Amino acid sequence: MKTFLSLVLALLLVNVCLAQSPTTKVDNLRVFLDCQAYCDTDYIKREITFVDYVNDRFQANVYLLITSQSTGSGGREYKLQFEGQEKFAGMMETKSYLRQAVATDDEDRKEAVAKIKLGLMPYLLKTEKAKDMIISFKDDNSNTSEIATTSAEDPWNFWVFNLNLRGHFSGDRNYSSNSLNGGISANRVTDKLKTSISINANENNNRFGEGDEMFTYTNRRYSFSNTTVWSITDHLSAGGFVSAQKSDYSNYDLDLAVTPAIEYNFFPYSESNNRYVGLMYKVGPRYLNYIEETIFSQMKEFRFQESLSLDVSFNQKWGQISGSTSFSHYFHDFSKKRLSFSGYGDIRLFKGFSFNIGGYYAIQRDQLNIIKGTVTDQDLLTRRRQLNSNYDFFFNFGIRYRFGSLFNNVVNPRFDGGGGMMYYY
């Protein structure tokens, strides 16, 4: 019996060892995809089959970081940064491409695959698979779309317009809610000047209970905003904000603000995909006309306020981290102030283990708009109007630990439903 058990144990140990042994050549590329932007990883694995995809960046010999930024036309600029590890240490490659606003996801993922193949080429040439490569080129007569770089090449002079309308309806016997949102925006972005204009309208209707116990309320909000900024140097920008709103929830019949601003980026703006540390100062007047009398016995007032904020963002191979801190106050009463902190981080601490955390906390003493009077139970339960509070916060965190098979080349979409999702509330 002991001999039989020993034999079974030996077979199990051999089987485990074989399962843990990579079946690919040592000289093969092992790629870790770090997508901090949209990536169709299943498609990438199907189209690029000449590498091994690993789940841990410490086991890769090619690390690929993918980030993106929005463009003036409403599209996105993707940057693919390749970094060699192990025998490829010191080898760096960077590829980028533009996704136009009207491009489909399929067009985007095809472009991503093409750029990934190009970026992997220098590493692939140093492997045994290089001898199996076949190089070909597109027909010179093939049509390729070009991106306008000067206003003379663009009949719209870089202006991009968006119209949107959406509605939401839900409910049951005891509760119903419906909302309608609509808006128009216009944006123009060049190297020297960026400006955006937005107009939005929202109506939200809610019902609680039925019959004699029924309680209903409606909140409406109309808003206008404009942001204009000029590029002064690769580190310095100047511009301003203009905003106006009418809001039932916030007790504003009119809230109008004109706020000049200046921003200094401690890193060049050209590096903002990977690192950004910006200090912004804003100061300007604000006219407030209220729907109901406030707790300070005001129906209208004209005030000046200023704010200073620091924003940081880093996207690196160890993960991503971003945060902001801001301080603002009114000049007529320095006790009317606000201090806020927000941040998010997703950090890989060691092999297979990552930790993410995010949150926001504000100490607020600047709520000039709070309605005078008694707070009812309905106000507390439905949150139909803004209530006085000297703080505001939210917080979330999570950890993830992955272990097991190193390689994950296989794509199996069965029972995935084609990638479509429906949400029920």
From TrEMBL:
<feature type="signal peptide">
    <location>
        <begin position="1"/>
        <end position="19"/>
    </location>
</feature>
<protein>
    <recommendedName>
        <fullName>DUF481 domain-containing protein</fullName>
    </recommendedName>
</protein>
<keyword id="KW-0732">Signal</keyword>
